[in-house]
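Predict the structure of Nicotinamide riboside kinase 1.
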Amino acid sequence: MKKLIIGIGGMTNGGKSTLSKSIQEHVPNSCIVAQDTFFKDDSVVAVDSNGFKQYDVLDALHMDGMMSDIRTWLKDPESFLTFRGWKTSFPQIPKADEVYVLIIEGFLIFNYRPLNEIMDKKYFLTIPYELCKKRRCSRVYTPPDPPGYFDGHVWPMYLKNRKEMEETVSDLVYLDGMKSREELFGTVYEEVMLEIQRLLGIFHSSL
Ligand SMILES: Nc1ncnc2c1ncn2[C@@H]1O[C@H](COP(=O)(O)OP(=O)(O)OP(=O)(O)O)[C@@H](O)[C@H]1O
Ligand SMILES: NC(=O)c1ccc[n+]([C@@H]2O[C@H](CO)[C@@H](O)[C@H]2O)c1
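Done. Here is the predicted structure for Nicotinamide riboside kinase 1.
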């Protein structure tokens, strides 16, 4: 059995969940581990001098819990898929020819070294400030963003986290989140399927 680990990261509302879901739906034996499901309880998230909850930092996340889930997948991807309900609607592929694909999705995945070390391919979705603010303001998080949160916490932390990421990670593939859902899906899907074929020893010739 072969394994492939894809990271789909990027700024808030860049389209990470949308892209990850469409890849998962089309790639056989794939599943998603999403960083957003590992936020700590609101009561333990730090608050800054302006009263803003510090959600956009690694400290606000149970990264140990996320790694533990990923280790479970690494040990036995097939059982992980079955027990976590990642049913596949694809025809059963012979076992020897299987590649299991893990999609790691989140806004701070490339700022966490243990994750960086295990990912085979790293995508980073970006959108301009105005669009990011517009999309973010039309969403409701739990707890909801207080007034001024985007400019007072989310955007400054994004700039800080992105700088740190770019100082430590060199193999990122940037994706323009302004492109259509279909185009983004097409680009990533094609690369993932090529990588799966490469792992299975299926080579293509342009001749
Ligand atoms: N390519 C796209 N073009 C236009 N709108 C998009 C595109 N991708 C996603 N969206 C929309 O943008 C919003 C944010 O998308 P999504 O939830 O996928 O982002 P995200 O990066 O996972 O956000 P976050 O992790 O900050 O919650 C949604 O309303 C979604 O429908
Ligand atoms: N518990 C949550 O999912 C939660 C709570 C508060 C804020 N957020 C925001 O999620 C984004 C990442 O997807 C970050 O920008 C957080 O501010 C999430």
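The helical segments are 16-26, 63-75, 77-83, 113-118, 129-137, 149-168, 181-199.
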